Every structure is written in C-alpha cells, then in structure tokens.
Amino acid sequence: MPDSPDLEPTAALVMLWARDLYRTGSAARFYSCLDLAAGEQMRRECEAVCPWYAEVILNRKWFIREIAVRFVADVCAPCQVVVPAAGKSPLALELLDACGDGIASVIEVDIEGMEEKQHLYERAAPAHAAKIRCVPADLADLPGTAAAIAGAGYDPDLPTVVILEGVSYYIPPAVLSGIFSLFASPDRKNRAIVEYLLPRRLIAEKRRNIPRKIWRVINRDCNQGGTVTYSPEEMETALAHAGCDSVVQHSMHEIEPARTGANRYFRAVADGWIAIASGWL
Q1: For 154-202, how does the pLDDT look when each residue is reduced to its tens digit (9 = 90+)?
Q2: What is the pTM of this model?
C-alpha cells in the first residue's frame, strides 16, 4: 500500500499515465510507494478528451531517458545528471539502473518535496540513493538554484546531462535559458535536454483541440497563469542564449516509432503538440 503523502494532481496525473515505464527495477519499487489518487479525477476528464493521451507521456519520458542513456554511454567516463523541477519522477533510478557506474551522481532540484523524495529513494532503492541528492530550490531564483546545486556536490569538470521535463510549460524563456546557462562549458561537454509545448499554429487543425482541452483541465486546477509555448526556432533561440549549440529537434512523429515501431497516432509532424530538443552546452 502506498505510504507517501498525496502528490499534487498534475504530478499524479502524469505518473498515472507513465505507469507502463515503471514495471521493473528500482523505478517500479519507487512507483509502488506513491499515492496517485489525486490525479484520478483529472485523468478521467483528460481521457474523455483523448483516450490515448498516455501515449504522449510514454513517448516523451521514454525518449528523454534514451537520449540521456546514450549520452552516458558515449561519454565513456563517469558523468553527472541534473534534473531541475524533478517532481516525483523516478528518472534518476531508471538511469542508474541502465548506466550503473557510468553515472557518478544525480542532483534533483524542486521547490518542495525534496526531503521526502530523498527518503523515498532510500526506502525504495538504497543501493542507488547514495548517488542521488534531492535539494530544494525555486528555479525562478537563479542564484539560489545555482547555490543549491553547488551545495549538492556538483562538479563542473564532469560531463553533465541536464534534463528539463514537464516544466517548460510553466516558466518564461528567460528562466529556462538561465537554468541551462548554469551548465555551459567552454568545450561543450554537457548535454541539454528539454521537452516543450508547441504553439497552436504549428499543430494540425484536426489535433488542436486535444492540447487546448487537456490544458484547460490542467490549468483550471493547477496553473491558472496558463502555459508557455515555443516554436522549434524559439526554443533554439532560448537554448542559444544559454550557450547551447548543435541543437537537434525531435517531433512526436519521430519519437513514436522509435518507441513503438510504428506511427499509430502521429503520422505527420504536425499531428503532435509536444517536442523535445537536445543540444550541447
């Protein structure tokens, strides 16, 4: 029986949709500790709009993990993982299960819940918990975030992959750029990964109502300020301001067959409303 406090509704919703990623390993033990009841009503409302919406979340989470695993494998040396706005995602455990000694440490940051998450790691995956540091910080406070990450043992000499997932909808471009700029390196040894929401004009007309109605549900309960969107060019500009170059864009049209072997839901680039960008810092 889960024995953690309730997650807030949006976080619980995403984790409900992501269940199929956490069937084995350390992430499965972590997942079993979560109480996701707060997301059930929102899931029912969202799936009334789009019954297969879980596929979007599975695609994005699977692909982000794959990019990160490839980075660690290609570096051929111990590296760091930094996850701002980590929430209750067990991505750290997925990567440590997959990469082992290729990862020296994982630093997770969020505005709240980090002490609790550290305890969850210690209970669910004690073998990995020693490599993970969960620290509180508000991403809007860039100096405070930098200090928290440094205090958690961040080593600027080690190759680092920085992952922003699920938070780009809620922070302005200047904050997004500022976070990644903390990890810019002279030799571009670090990797940036960010998932983001596309503007309405870039989405096929037949699909526009899906994200509009989904975010109407989410914003009503959890984010009354609305969402932030980026075109691929705008995201590249934001990343360039952080010192990031060689940016590669990944659409759901590309990601879906990489995960499932076929384009069932995203048969054209414009069928998707979420994209992932990765580049070198």
Answers
A1: 999 999 999 999 999 999 999 999 999 999 999 999 999 999 999 999 9
A2: 0.95
Tokens representing residue 19 in the block: 């269940």
Residues 6+ away with beta carbon under 8 Å from 163: 64, 68, 81, 82, 83, 84, 91, 193, 194
Alpha carbon distances (Å) from 15 to 70, 109, 214, 245, 260:
24, 18, 16, 32, 19
The closest alpha carbon to 86, from 104, 113, 66, 63, belongs to 113
| Tens of pLDDT, residues 47-68 | 999 999 999 999 999 999 999 9
Rounded-to-integer distance, Cα 265 and Cα 53, Å: 10
DSSP state of 2: -
d(CA 192, CA 142): 17
Strand arrangement, sheet containing 191-197: 132-136, 103-110, 79-84, 160-164, 191-197, 274-280, 245-251
The runs of H, that is alpha helices, within 52-113 are 54-75, 91-99
Span 104-156, pLDDT tens digits: 999 999 999 999 999 999 999 999 999 999 999 999 999 999 999 999 999 99
- What whole-number distance in Å separates Cα of residue 40 and Cα of residue 23? 19
- Which helix (H) or strand (E) segment is 11 a member of? helix 9-17
